[in-house]
Fold these 2 entries.
Entry 1:
Amino acid sequence: MIKVLGHKAPDSDATGSPVIWAWYLNEVRKTPAAAVLQGEPNTEAGWMLTRWGVEKPEIIADLAAGEKVVVVDTNNPAELPASINEADVIEIIDHHLLAGGIKTKTPINITIRPLACTATIMHDLIGEDLAQAPEAIKGVMLTCILSDTLEFRSPTTTAHDRAVAEKLAADLGVNIPDYAAEMFAAKSDVSAFADDALLRMDSKEYELGGKQLRVSVLETTAPQVLLDRKDALMAAMPGVAAADGADEVLLFIVDILNEQATLLVPNDFVKTVAEKSFNATVTGDTVLLPGIMSRKKQIIPALAV
Amino acid sequence: MIKVLGHKAPDSDATGSPVIWAWYLNEVRKTPAAAVLQGEPNTEAGWMLTRWGVEKPEIIADLAAGEKVVVVDTNNPAELPASINEADVIEIIDHHLLAGGIKTKTPINITIRPLACTATIMHDLIGEDLAQAPEAIKGVMLTCILSDTLEFRSPTTTAHDRAVAEKLAADLGVNIPDYAAEMFAAKSDVSAFADDALLRMDSKEYELGGKQLRVSVLETTAPQVLLDRKDALMAAMPGVAAADGADEVLLFIVDILNEQATLLVPNDFVKTVAEKSFNATVTGDTVLLPGIMSRKKQIIPALAV
């Protein structure tokens, strides 16, 4: 049984693309496979599974040595189980930069494309066999693309991601604006999460000026709900950083509908980062960054200190 | 101008696949590109260029910082210019194991497939646009596949490599057995090369039991020509190893037509490797290994000490 596995913070793409590829391996390639997760899906991903009647994949803590695994939506060992290089990675499908940490013992299939979403790459790899897919698989694929592109608002969006999503929506009879509004409402419902969980929910590690950063993003249609919790979120940052071996946490609250982000500014280091990276003027403990929506395209490349 | 670059020891695939991809970038994608080499093409690759009227690509020593480069037929920094991680790698197309040393700053196109030949992967990526290709490009593609598969004899050969080569040969009106015989005669004409050049001609670095090995292969239809030089070849090994930071050189003379290899045995270390890796009985300074043709599939995975 092949395990299909995404990164440690299961958003829609990291939850949905293992489901899509496990379907493809089982039903088209006739190879037994199962989607697995490294943690609880976020609220949008959980909503997606319910909406399309897909069973929640098993949550695993690690992989056995020699276990066959397909890695999707990441290629970074820091986002994978500790034993990833002892497992047998048989395929990688991803849309992130090449992190350089995974080695394989033999040549395998690796497909990395500069598209907004892993599910778009899978759409292309599956090709005409997608006609065999049940609505649930197409619905998951559509959700992944709308999630990663923030309904085509993110600058990571390519014309191809958009065309694939529009084709899937037409096929499923889904109205994209209505559907995306439901998705984003689910993503924005974070009332059940503690402050430290929010800081870790969608977070990537990044080194800047000798400091190890957690660069965290919360995409929401209700930014005020999170801004109302800003004091508690900032108070939780030193504990999360210490527990995770980081020096600082940067939290960007991305306002999907108004296409802007608010960065919390708990200290002078983050103030300097905000000023040097985004040419911003910081006066209080938050700073508004107009147009900033994508960690990959706009935040990480800009980071300076 | 994008540079398209293969590995350090330009055989037919490492010479031809940059030529193919530079054609595709220039003529189909309308993006200025040039094939380049890291050294003189081997005798087979040189014959291929002459046979199809392709100008020999420029030989370069290094890349400038930020220079755009497509890496083909390798993904291993040890086989690339020293400054590869300062250059701007914009695409990788390969059929080797993931070596893990290249990092990229943004997501790029990476296509690695467990096929016998990079040119086969390019055939698939180019798709219907191959109809626009001149005969020279198809002829180079055919040569790469016949070279890497040793005319379908190598165990690395897949049904897909074979089907692509047969389609290309039919299209070009080329008789594969006659054509391959000419190719292999060119590859076997190594009279102009000094012993140290032969030891480095088709060589990969590999660590075994704490020792750094140069695992060298010479594919030939005239093994006796090389066996007649075995004393000189063994005498050259310590100097080549020392100059290249290796501990030992393993030289496998692959007899293409009889589908077997002869390993030179200059010392007790190599004798032990031969015995432990291939269950061979070594009595003199050579050992015949029936059926062994592929470094990737049969030699490297078997190496033990």
Entry 2:
Amino acid sequence: MAFKTDIEIAREAKKKPIQEIGDKLGIPTEHLLPYGHDKAKVSQDFIRSLEGRPDGKLILVTAINPTPAGEGKTTTTVGLGDGLNRIGKKAVVCIREASLGPNFGMKGGAAGGGYAQVVPMEEMNLHFTGDFHAITSAHNLLSAMIDNHIYWGNELQIDERRVTWRRVMDMNDRALRDIVVSLGGVSNGFPRQTGFDITVASEVMAILCLSKDLADLQKRLGDIVVAYRRDKSPIYARDVKADGAMTVLLKDAMQPNLVQTLENNPAFVHGGPFANIAHGCNSVIATKTALKLGEYVVTEAGFGADLGAEKFFDIKCRKAGLKPAAAVIVATVRAMKMNGGVAKADLGAENVEAVKKGCPNLGRHIANVKSFGVPVVVAINHFYSDTDAEVAAVKAYVAEQGAEAILCKHWANGSAGIEDLARKVVDLAESGAANFAPLYPDEMPLFQKIETIAKRIYHADEVIADKSIRDQLKAWEAAGYGNLPICMAKTQYSFSTDPNLRGAPTGHSVPVREVRLSAGAGFIVAICGEIMTMPGLPKVPSAEVIRLNAEGHVEGLF
Amino acid sequence: MAFKTDIEIAREAKKKPIQEIGDKLGIPTEHLLPYGHDKAKVSQDFIRSLEGRPDGKLILVTAINPTPAGEGKTTTTVGLGDGLNRIGKKAVVCIREASLGPNFGMKGGAAGGGYAQVVPMEEMNLHFTGDFHAITSAHNLLSAMIDNHIYWGNELQIDERRVTWRRVMDMNDRALRDIVVSLGGVSNGFPRQTGFDITVASEVMAILCLSKDLADLQKRLGDIVVAYRRDKSPIYARDVKADGAMTVLLKDAMQPNLVQTLENNPAFVHGGPFANIAHGCNSVIATKTALKLGEYVVTEAGFGADLGAEKFFDIKCRKAGLKPAAAVIVATVRAMKMNGGVAKADLGAENVEAVKKGCPNLGRHIANVKSFGVPVVVAINHFYSDTDAEVAAVKAYVAEQGAEAILCKHWANGSAGIEDLARKVVDLAESGAANFAPLYPDEMPLFQKIETIAKRIYHADEVIADKSIRDQLKAWEAAGYGNLPICMAKTQYSFSTDPNLRGAPTGHSVPVREVRLSAGAGFIVAICGEIMTMPGLPKVPSAEVIRLNAEGHVEGLF
């Protein structure tokens, strides 16, 4: 069988003018700020005018731990949005924006796949509406103002060795990870060691995605801890008076971006924080706006449910007051087989036993998500190689867990292939079964929060942390940060911190290597393992073959 | 008298939808890619469709050497565009985009002033349509690919000490001028010293502004010399295979931006290369597109006519095949007085003698511009403090030089204040008097080109350059770069290289400190004095007071 590629399908899309898509949601043309003919931002004024309207129902799409087989979480998110529209519900998809830099390393990310995609794909993988550039500018303005403050006399007594605020660039550039700045003599400042992270790792990104409006944004930007004095007292972004100008740089980026699916249904694509050192969800403002405009909002969280859904619930929903009505856990027969010990090369052959053996990974995610009081349905994202017996094995296993697994063919057939899932989601959401509560209360001590996540979600026996880390957590509690949620940064490939430990491991321990305060975003990051915040390019970066072809289309990006 | 500020006037503008502005020029809506309701890019397809159409008349607005009194070159450019429309000519204004970074240092630049402005002012001083961000990305992708090439084995044998390609950021950040990258061990590459320039200083900016289409853009990007081997042979951007991906990043930025004047006349605002190490003009593609769409195109060049007009003629017009029909030289009574020795604090008092004494600066610019075969008119940009006798003195002096000086009140009265100038420009342009030729032929040896500019335009006695500089120029001639024009980088405040030497000095010498090859842009930079390519922030940067006010307007930026 010869399949069309995602980009071929995307280019054949019959896009409607973005004003028509906005009209479906009742957004007046004057409040839709176009970027070309197929992208638009929704004005802050219009968003403010929605206050008091009832909210639609929020559906989370999450997944098993990712495997090299690919699960199709975004594809299912987009497909479910189309499916809900197909069965007569006004549904809006909310997903994250793509980072530009990594697209020039490995092949770029599409927004969904097959016949469940969001378009325009090229623009979404390039500059899109400039949000990430605005975040880069705001972040680096703060960096420049810190060094400028030191240069002109350092009235705040910033300890140059303790400037924690780095710079960012939306590029894979390992040479910038660890640098010395301000060389060259008196007129260039005081030399010190620092570095660049990739823009999606910026705390400004996390802040933009968690802020409810521009006032909240400015407050959070001001709250960022950028450095410490010799006495270890913190210096905030507002101390160097950067918060106002940063807000100005971000005022357009704070407006959600409206695009469309291949089936001309509305999708908000807005924000894209890292899913390790940040919470990995699209923006609160996009989700909340979508809830005012649609009956159903389908959104996703980064990585598998152990990281993505947990942070979605414990950080985003907790802080934004969101109450999910149902969750979809995406799994594939192939991924079950890999969890059951099959190598990627052998995925083509039927292997019901391996499927059964791998299912406990899915089972644990089901139980975990249910433990938040959110009803669950499993979407089996269909591949052509799946056999009936393999699919039946997954369905039977899921039924034993007290849930239902539904075979979905949206990749091949668009919304027509996902109607059953859409109906089930509506049943769950309208059943009133949801009774969402976060995993732990705000008041729980910070270390105990980490333990709670590790034990109840990862099924670990213990959390290991040096005394210095425990002391740091206590110091933050004393400084008034004890009520913050935890943002776990660990491998996405396993419930444990060992990426090779598939399935549903028990008896492992979770070592916390480092903790970081994101005072503006409003969480404490617990780092369990190596986290790379500035990727490098591979030996043969895809940039080498990316080019415009004779028709003016981008080649090599997908 | 209480005057409204520029930003107050700009905010009162009755802007028309950008589609209506495009319609005035016959641009179909589908070829106008909107960015909000008041900005748009013109599609490449539409631009290609214009080939073969006759060109309108090109009018250059230039000025005397700038003084702290302010001349109002952009204001006059915008005013003249409105004035030409007022008298029934279809006229288009073409000016440069503003750089974001410096706006957070000193108070930001407006686009014109008083009642001769281009709007939307806020957006034009912030992210606008993202062109500069795209240039930053393209530039830094090339940087990352160079270090990545070295990291993975350095097949091209790049000498790490001879990597000339730096990185850029659109920010005033002195800490980044001189840095060491790739610290931190094996996985971060080979440590080396380098730095960041501000984005407007990027050769990519100059290339974008000189390229006639996307194919030309890609060729020029490939031509960039990024490093040398130990044997001093050059490495080009195309050797690291960056030219295709850079072109993809720049494909939208290559489309000219359409906005409007306060009087709803069309203005292209596109590109903004430095006026010292680059040529300081808006993009060729915007100017050429405007010439196909309008009867008159009014554009400006950076700094005074000695630098700006010379480069406009010898680089932009020469390379793009443009033939200016007339030039306007902007002068003010106040600037004449400063050239005549009056301090800024004393400009309020009438001083006809000082005006007369300062006029030779203007006189030399008139003669210089005429020497390119371009007819000249002088615009006296009126200030309220100007007396009749002072204005009469300037007019009399200009008449002696065989030109006419016309008093213009566009700042206070918009197009109604500049009708006389508009009529005179039409007379000159339609007289057929123009017979444009560049100052020197392509074949002239490089050093002789520098001497020609210094002697004929600056009226210097000699050019001083070390043997190493002369040898470098000869080496470039041997390498096939001998036919390139020269891009002079010297102080804009004087005909000489001494910024304090006002008026029309003679007998001075021009020391060339350094020469640089911009092989992609297609010129050789002769640096005469200190050139800063990464500004710093002042002690109290305007960023400290920039913020959104309660109405959502930006405060402190203007």
